[in-house]
């Protein structure tokens, strides 16, 4: 399996320059805000979404100043949503590092998220990048809709497979879709190509999220995510949806009752065992692979080049990762 470093190789120079560009885009004269922003920069993740922006631009045209603005806009939005998610979910650690709300409390965290979102919007407006702003604004709307739809369905425990795919398309895939679309838009690609790249990102993001949901059924210690965490939070994902549609009505009612009431590790283990025995994970993996092939199928429409190879490797990496 390719590593992030090898995937990044065709745009390694641009990604180094992006770090400086992004740091400048986040800058604030407010001392407290600057301390928090520096803390966030030090704990940055793999920066997968800016990578997609640059690789998409390189595949469809040439990387330019607009591409750096697009990558910054996407990363500012992504960082803002992560901060807000941590507040909503009352999460105090991310990848083993304290979250903003853990260190500076929820009020500060919400304000920092709002600040980053405003910086992204202003960056686009000040550089007359209205097309990029439109793409990203759609993602902001859909991410909010996806979160609220998931909350609604979690309360009622009546989520269907169609509901599931609509939720993950809006919650996760839309920002990855926007990353690919913004990259193509920044390179001067026409509307047809921008739409192809948007679909590529949507398919990749959907496969990525299904992989993430499969992790919930792995043994403790094999990955960073606790076993049964989604179930404990009443998030019914694809492996369980498939299982609930396959088992008897009485078993379905019993499982939904466990999820809706107070549950213990024994009950969670029982549900996980039921999902595994009824091939729920196999079904989810098949669906994940279907979306992976759809994403790669779009890339096959483009001529062979380094950027195409890296994007193909990125799709495969997203669906075979073990964390």
Polypeptide structure, described:
The protein has a single domain, classed as Farnesyl Diphosphate Synthase (Orthogonal Bundle). Helix 5 packs antiparallel against helix 8 and helix 9 runs parallel beside helix 15. It has 15 helices and two strands. A two-stranded antiparallel sheet has the order 1-2. The longest helix is centred in the middle third of the chain and has 27 residues. The chain has 323 residues and is mostly helical. 41% of the residues are buried. A hairpin with a 2-residue loop joins strand 1 and strand 2. The protein starts with a helix and ends with a helix.
Topology:
Elements: H1 4-8, H2 12-26, H3 31-42, H4 48-60, H5 65-88, E1 93-94, E2 97-98, H6 100-126, H7 130-156, H8 161-186, H9 191-215, H10 229-232, H11 238-246, H12 249-260, H13 265-277, H14 280-299, H15 306-320
Antiparallel strand pairs: 1-2
Strand content: under 5%
Rg, please? 20 Å
Please, how many helices?
15
> How many separate structural domains?
1
Say what the CATH topology is: Farnesyl Diphosphate Synthase
How does the helix and strand content classify structurally?
mainly alpha
The sequence of SSEs as H and E is: HHHHHEEHHHHHHHHHH
Distance between the termini: 14 Å
CATH architecture designation: Orthogonal Bundle
Give the proportion of residues in helices: over 70%
Poorly predicted regions: 221-226
Mean pLDDT across residues: 88
């Amino acid at each position: 399996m390719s590593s992030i470093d090898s995937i990044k190789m065709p745009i390694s120079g641009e990604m180094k320059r992006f770090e400086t560009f992004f740091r400048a885009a986040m800058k604030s004269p407010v001392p407290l805000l600057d301390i928090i922003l520096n803390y966030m920069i030090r704990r940055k993740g793999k920066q997968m979404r800016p990578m997609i922006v640059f690789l998409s631009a390189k595949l469809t045209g040439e990387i330019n100043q607009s591409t750096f603005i697009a990558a910054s806009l996407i990363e500012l939005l992504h960082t803002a949503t992560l901060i807000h998610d941590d507040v909503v979910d009352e999460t105090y650690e991310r990848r083993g590092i304290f979250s903003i709300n853990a260190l500076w409390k929820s009020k500060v965290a919400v304000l920092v998220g709002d600040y980053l979102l405003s910086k992204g919007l202003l960056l686009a407006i000040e550089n007359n990048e209205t097309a990029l702003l439109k793409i990203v604004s759609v993602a902001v709307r859909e991410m909010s809709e996806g979160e609220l739809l998931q909350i609604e369905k979690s309360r009622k425990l009546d989520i269907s497979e169609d509901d599931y795919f609509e939720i993950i398309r809006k919650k996760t895939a839309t920002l990855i879709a926007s990353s690919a679309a913004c990259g193509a838009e920044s390179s001067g690609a026409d509307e047809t190509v921008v739409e192809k790249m948007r679909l590529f990102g949507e398919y990749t993001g959907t496969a990525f999220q299904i992989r993430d949901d499969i992790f919930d059924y792995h043994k403790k210690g094999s990955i960073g995510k606790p076993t049964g965490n989604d179930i404990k939070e009443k998030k019914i994902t694809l492996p369980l949806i498939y299982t609930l549609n396959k088992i008897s009505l009485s078993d379905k009612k019993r499982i939904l009752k466990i999820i809706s009431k107070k549950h213990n590790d024994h009950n969670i283990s029982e549900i996980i065992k039921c999902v595994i025995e009824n091939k729920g994970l196999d079904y989810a993996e098949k669906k994940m692979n279907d979306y992976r092939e759809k994403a790669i199928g779009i890339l096959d429409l483009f001529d062979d080049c380094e950027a195409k190879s890296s994007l193909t490797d990125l799709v495969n990496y997203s669906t075979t990762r073990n964390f």
